Amino acid sequence: MDISLKEYFNRFHRLPLDAEDAIDEICSYQKLKKNALLQPIGYTCRTIYFITKGLARIFYLKDGIDVTESFAFEQQIIVRVESLFTGKPSRKGIQVLEDSDITAIDANALFELYDRFPDIERLFRKIFEASHVETVHRIESIQFHTADERYRELLEEAPDLLKRVPLKYIASYLGITQSSLSRIRALR
């Protein structure tokens, strides 16, 4: 198992070696070029992705406009969880924004491991719980904070974001126009 994936898992729940080996057997590794689609819109998600190197975003189209829902950086997981759990095609896609190295975990095989390895089930429950909390935090940020506050919080969480992500994606993530983002940046 990739050392960075093991370290990521250990932040949530330490696995015994046999469980680590079982996960390693259901992983594959991908190298993707900048702007490649990891999962297109309309795809039924059957894979959990761990970003070893690079950066990705979840996006959707609304009235023909490309909207960024979230970013995932090195040492983070990215997945279309609503599609993964329902088995239905997602209305969102996943795109890498830099040349990226990805570990892909086969979700169906992972779910089969839950019965054999309760520690794996516990690990992924904790990962998905943390993801849910992040989603609620994101929704509350949009509901209760100004665009400037959201921008400051984003820079605190990901200080090198401006160097790595086109401004149009940052603006759509913040729920503002690119010109509004330029005004916010000019005031800083």
CATH fold topology: Jelly Rolls
Compute the CA-based radius of gyration: 17 Å
Shape verdict: globular
What is the level-2 CATH architecture name? Sandwich
- The low-confidence runs, each spanning 5 or more residues with pLDDT under 50, are none
Estimate the mean pLDDT confidence.
Answer: 94
Distance between the termini: 43 Å
Helix content: 40-55%
Helix count, per DSSP? 9
Number of strands: 8
Along the chain, the helix and strand elements come as HHEEEEEEHEEHHHHHH
Biggest sheet character: 4 strands, antiparallel
> CATH superfamily assignment?
Jelly Rolls
| Number of separate domains | 1
Strand order of the largest sheet: 1-8-3-6
Pairing-aware structural class of the strands and helices?
Answer: alpha+beta
Structure description:
Helix content is 50%, strand content 24%. With 188 residues, the protein is an alpha+beta fold. The protein has one domain (3-144): Sandwich (Jelly Rolls). The strands form 2 sheets. The chain has a 4-stranded antiparallel sheet with strand order 1-8-3-6. Strands 2-7-4-5 form a 4-stranded antiparallel sheet. Helix 4 packs across helix 5. It is globular, with a radius of gyration of 17 Å. The mean pLDDT is 94.
What's a quick, concise take on this entry?
By secondary structure, this protein is α+β, with helices and mostly antiparallel strands.
